[in-house]
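dumping the sequnces here before i forget
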Amino acid sequence: MAEEVKKRTTYRSRKELKPRLYIGDPMVAVFRTLVRTTINRPNTILYPWEKLIMPDCFRGRPGIRLEKCIECKKCVKICPNQCIQMVPIDHPTLGKVNRPQVYVARCMMCGYCAEVCPTNAMMVTPEFELAAYTRSDLMFDPFKLQYEHKPGYEVHSPMITPSELKAGKTESHDKGDMAIKDTVELDPKKCISCQRCAKTCPVGAITMADTGEVNPKTNKPVKRPVFDNNKCVSCEQCVEVCPKSCLSMKEAM
Amino acid sequence: MTEMWMNMGPQHPMTHGLWNLRVKVDGEKITEAQPVIGYLHRGWEKMVEARDFQQIIPMADRLCYGSSMTWSHLYCRTIEELMDVEVPERAQWIRVIVCEMQRIASHLMWLAAVGTDLGSYTIFLYCMRERELFLDQLMNLTGARMTYNYPRIGGVRNDLPENFERDTLRVLNLFEKRLKTEYEALCDKTVSYRMRMENTGYLSKADAMNLGVTGPNMRGSGVDFDIRRDDPYEKYDEVDFEVCVEQEGDSYARYRVRMREMQESCNIIRQAFKKMRPGPVRVKAPRNAPKKTAFAHVEDPRGEGLMYVVGDGTNQPYRLKVRSPIFVSVSAAPVMLIGEKVADVPAIMGSIDMCLGETDR
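..and the predicted 3d for all of it:
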């Protein structure tokens, strides 16, 4: 098959080209670049001494503001590589709290942890020089993970619900807006008033309210959780902890 | 001994990625060829079955680092088909722009690789220099240089930053100028480049169609087909562009197709900037997928990329199948190589623009 091609007439443009062009034009192109880079600055930079200017949204390693974190574990759940886990720390002002620790050696810098963080405690920093001598150096505990915050480091993902789009609205909501927030829904028939959801809630959005009924077996008043949707951050910890699975997430669509 | 088997790869300057080409040579002439893949297999399709729909987007980036935007875009389109999500118009225009920028960057990387295959380091340096301009623009937009994680199910992550349009149009002007002067001088008007690319690696129109080769490799063989025109997605039906077809079917025709496609991509980006209107860029997507199947295909820089997903009512895919264009193009290696000389193998196999990350998955 290749033999047939070789017999065929080749491209017309090649016939038109003179040997002068074959040799001359590439040399002129290269020579022009030589002159340009000799007179002007070259295209490369001297890396350790000069550095590129990174845009504000550059995604380096994750960073955290410890005082802003509310332990909602959203970053732990969203991480595709499972490199974030909550560890207990003893903070001088916050006391004994749980804060995320990131194994940066496994991190793929996708920025999801900062995108889902409801309080913008987690952020993506512009740090990209992360080489270390040992693997354990790359285990960033909450104190090592801390980073000074600057405006522009938080990740926003403006969103609109499908129903609003169909209605012709064009204004997007930032994260935390009530319009796009998923809320918790209770199935009162299954609830056993164990109060675990109220104890687990990291922001105190769940309170146990009396229903007025009395449990005939124990003679104790029956309580049901009441949700404060303004405080809720949709972290789903109450859904997970419920022993009777009477809680579910209702999506704002 | 008249004939012998030779192993090219998996670690050989000729291989673009980890793969092995076994060729049977009779002197200098190739009488048989067997492509062997599987050195890069990561179990991608199995891995994503244990992850949420949203968590898979950065994994789809890793399928092919040369054109990561296309693959995460394809994944998002597949899940949108599955969940019946309607994407806002502005997000569709942004997707058109970023995919075309990614196409230019991918083709430039291909030309750089072919330049090193042919021993022309100048082509490599020039292409990488221009590719940097497009990567810088994508970094301003997404925050990462190669694995962007930018498309989302139901739109894109964020709107265009300030001055993005102005900077991109400047980059396009500079790139088009260089495409017409420097690249033409370095490739089209260079004797050694023309002699090694012309009349080698012939793939006939019938062979290309029968083997299922897609993308620029197929269009270089004279098949007039482009998913962007024939099954338009996003806003490609509203832009006016030409499908680049060359009739010759050799390595040089595949090179010409890609160079003309880069020019067409510049035109598409210009039109998209003109037709864009302000508005929302992301729609909230449901958590769980319905129990049904869906597929989507897009025009990858290398050919037709296709994903097929089976939903089972949970927030994880039951099965996700990827159809990669290079898996088929590599299978066409025997057809292109038999009868050629060993020294032409790097130029021919380089000219089909291989990316083994998506092939082995």
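The CA atoms of residues 210 and 248 of chain B lie 17 Å apart.
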